[in-house]
Design goal:
single chain, mainly alpha, 72% helix, binds 3-methylbut-3-enyl trihydrogen diphosphate, binds magnesium ion
Length: 290
């Protein structure tokens, strides 16, 4: 699993570096590259490749779409660490982008990474027909805006120091993290022009995987370490973040996550041995320490 993840990370970084090299230079590109190449796991790209392999899709096509996803993800982390958001000084074991380059530069580098995702998806390097590209761009935009990352981040911040119901916490986690995973699960079906019903099914699977991912991230914050995670832990409690752990306790949250994996795997059974890679990734997601 780690080997496969490393290969995807390496291939994604090679693509992104080449893509950036072909563009004109700017001063902002330095903090953008800092946020983009500071060593993320590329788990979202792995999910894309896993789902893509169920539908026999071309690796390079999936990789390019994954590169766009990683740009959006990197932007969301740069902004997530800002003083007006989570105020975190360390990311991926290094100073956060705003610590290294200053706050306004970090905001603008984040914005530029977000829009770079759309440059990638609309670029000729991505060898799919234009109608499909528009559907991909439409879906990833919705996953990133007020119905996705931005909307979820808004809820995350507005729920601090409040008692929030389980339903609302789950809804917030699905928005801030799950929606981008939904895109990763749906993109292969868009490429294959699958039915609305199938797309809906994978959208839900993606939301569950993203929720699982965020719950695991919350557990790492609860009992992980800075040296393993590459970011300060024990912060959610201090900041009064509304998480399943704050509501149900860590043991019940672990139980919840195990049930969630079972639920996702039941939905994947239909795809037989082809879903093995994805199942492997789910186990990694829950058992990771970074
Ligand atoms: C961290 O994401 C932020 C969340 C959505 C929980 P990752 O754990 O995927 O971050 P990197 O890219 O590997 O650093
Ligand atoms: C971040 O969630 C979710 C995003 C969409 C960026 P967290 O705030 O828990 O992520 P970390 O723990 O700082 O990586
Ligand atoms: Mg946050
Ligand atoms: Mg944070
Ligand atoms: Mg966290």
């Amino acid at each position: 699993m780690q080997k496969k993840l490393n290969k995807i990370a390496k291939d994604t970084n090679i693509f992104l570096k080449k893509f950036i090299k072909k563009q004109k230079k700017s001063e902002l590109i330095v903090p953008m590259q800092y946020g983009l190449f500071s060593g993320g796991k590329k788990i979202r790209s792995k999910i894309l490749v896993d789902v893509g392999s169920i539908f026999n899709l071309n690796y390079r096509t999936l990789l390019i779409i994954g590169a766009a996803v990683e740009c959006i993800h990197a932007y969301s982390l740069i902004h997530d660490d800002l003083p007006c958001m989570d105020n975190d000084l360390i990311r991926r074991g290094k100073p956060s982008t705003h610590i290294k380059f200053g706050e306004s530069t970090a905001v603008l580098a984040g914005n530029s990474l977000l829009t770079m995702a759309f440059e990638i998806l609309s670029h000729k390097d991505l060898n799919v027909n234009e109608k499909t590209k528009i559907r991909l761009i439409n879906n990833i935009s919705e996953s990133s805006g007020h119905l996705g990352i931005a909307g979820g981040q808004y809820l995350d911040l507005s729920y601090e120091h409040k008692k929030i119901s389980e339903k609302k916490i789950i809804e917030m986690e699905i928005k801030k993290t799950g929606k981008l995973f939904s895109f990763c699960c749906v993109a292969p079906l868009i490429l294959k022009n699958k039915s609305k019903k199938d797309i809906q099914k994978f959208e839900n699977i993606g939301a569950d995987i993203g929720l699982l991912f965020q719950v695991a991230d919350d557990l790492i914050d609860y009992n992980g370490s800075l040296s393993a995670a590459g970011k300060k832990t024990g912060k959610d409690k201090k900041k009064g973040k509304a998480t399943l752990i704050s509501l149900l306790g860590d043991k019940n949250t672990i139980k919840y996550a195990n049930k969630l994996i079972l639920k996702i795997n039941t939905k994947l059974k239909k795809y037989g041995p082809k879903s093995k890679n994805l199942t492997e990734t789910l186990n990694y997601i829950l058992n990771r320490n970074k």
